[in-house]
TrEMBL record:
One of its GO terms (biological process) is proteolysis. One of its GO terms (cellular component) is extracellular region. GO terms for molecular function: serine-type endopeptidase activity. Residues 1-27 form the signal peptide. PANTHER family: LP15124P-RELATED, SERINE PROTEASE-RELATED. Keywords: Disulfide bond, Secreted, Signal. This is Phenoloxidase-activating factor 2. InterPro entries: Peptidase_S1_PA, Peptidase_S1_PA_chymotrypsin, Peptidase_S1A, Trypsin_dom, TRYPSIN_HIS. It comes from Culex pipiens (House mosquito). Pfam families: Trypsin (PF00089).
Length: 377
């Protein structure tokens, strides 16, 4: 027994020494590097890979970027960073000039980063460059902070499209473009935030939430970038029934007990014909006589695949047949019965019903509509 005990002690000592050696080498390696954005570290054969955990960490319900505990990887760097040796750190701009010249271009594979891991329901970085955050100022521990309210879409450099129910209060709103992961500000391209100078709610928006649409005129235009682009407005006669479309923002992952998500979500949903959607709603607590207003369209119905609380105002975008990864905005996230109930789609403001209204308001505001008009060029 004594021999066995002494051999175990000897083995334990050897293991401890090995661990100390590894830790010492790791510490020495860490001392020779510092955390920088992945795209700024250029070593032979390097690739910009962002590893997603098996479960995405939800964002704090009340806060946005800069006010949430940051996640760290094994090198104590943020997820979009890497511990890089000084000699390999570069400072460069990926693009010198980007313009708002072609709306609705989806960056299918993201911009610069390649996501690996559990990507279900998570968008690539810069995949939907027209999706915006709507923010308000809120007192948090006696400090005024900008907090996430809902979503919107960019239809002109200085004009955002959202749901009226999101912006019906007398608040000072802000709009952020280029956001992706609210847990970090170290992404490849910077975000931009603008103050809302004017809120234009549809004249016939009412307590029943019919005509649930609004425009946000910004105090100054966004500057075009790889992660900031406009979405195309559809023709008034467009029909998206049966199309598989995309939506998503930073809303809750579940109804009631869910939490806001820190990474922009990607939710793929089929467009459901108006009459079938009305029938589905009549099977719920809305009752057999419910009438779905003509200002709405519907999408979804697959169990656990849906937008939820906090996604209001987000764009529903559908592919343009001849567009090659180009998209029209078909709808605006409006309301639903719970989130992700099987056979129950969500209700979206039907943008095709309001294209003329949008262009009329653009003209009155002196906003150039060119950035939201689709062309093959």
């Amino acid at each position: 027994m004594a021999k066995k005990s002494s051999s175990r002690v000897a083995l334990l000592i050897v293991l401890i020494q090995l661990l100390l050696l590894v830790d010492e080498r790791y510490a020495q390696s860490a001392m020779n590097c510092r955390c920088v954005e992945k795209h700024r570290c250029k070593t032979e054969g390097s690739t910009d890979v962002v590893v997603l955990p098996s479960t995405i960490t939800p964002a704090n319900v009340q806060t946005v970027a800069g006010d949430i505990d940051l996640r760290f990887d094994e090198n104590h760097c943020e997820r979009v960073e890497i511990c890089c040796e000084e000699k390999d750190i570069t400072n460069f701009r990926l693009t010198e000039h980007v313009a708002f010249d072609r709306c609705g271009i989806r960056n299918l594979n993201g911009i610069g980063y390649r996501l690996v891991g559990d990507k279900i329901g998570v968008s690539e970085y810069g995949e939907f460059p027209w999706t915006l955050m709507v923010l308000i100022n809120q007192q948090v521990v006696e400090i005024s902070k900008q907090v996430y309210l809902c979503a919107a879409s960019l239809i002109a450099p200085n004009l955002a499209l959202t749901a009226a129910h999101c912006v019906k209060q007398k608040e000072q709103y802000f709009v952020r473009a280029g956001e992706w992961d609210t847990n970090t500000d170290k992404e490849r391209f910077q975000t931009q935030t603008r103050e809302v100078a004017q809120v234009i709610i549809h004249e016939k928006y009412n307590q029943l939430h019919h005509n649930n649409i609004a425009l946000l005129k910004l105090d100054k235009p966004f500057e075009a970038d790889e992660n900031i682009q406009t979405i195309c407005l559809p023709p008034p006669d467009a029909n998206f029934n049966g199309h598989d479309c995309f939506t998503g923002a930073w809303g809750k992952d579940k109804f009631e007990e869910g939490r806001l998500q820190n990474i922009l979500r990607r939710v793929e949903v089929p467009v459901v014909p108006h009459d079938k959607c009305q029938d589905a709603f009549r099977s719920t607590r809305l009752g057999p006589f419910f009438v779905l207003d003509k200002s709405y369209m519907c999408a979804g119905g697959e169990e656990n695949v849906d937008v939820c609380t906090g996604d209001g105002g987000a764009p529903l975008v559908c592919p343009i047949a001849s567009g090659n990864d180009r998209y029209f905005q078909a709808g605006i996230v409006a309301w639903g019965i719970g989130c992700g109930q099987k056979g129950i789609p969500g209700a979206y403001t039907d943008v095709t019903k309001f294209v003329a209204w949008i262009y009329d308001k653009m003209a009155a505001l002196g906003v150039d509509p060119a950035a939201s008009k689709y062309s093959l060029l």
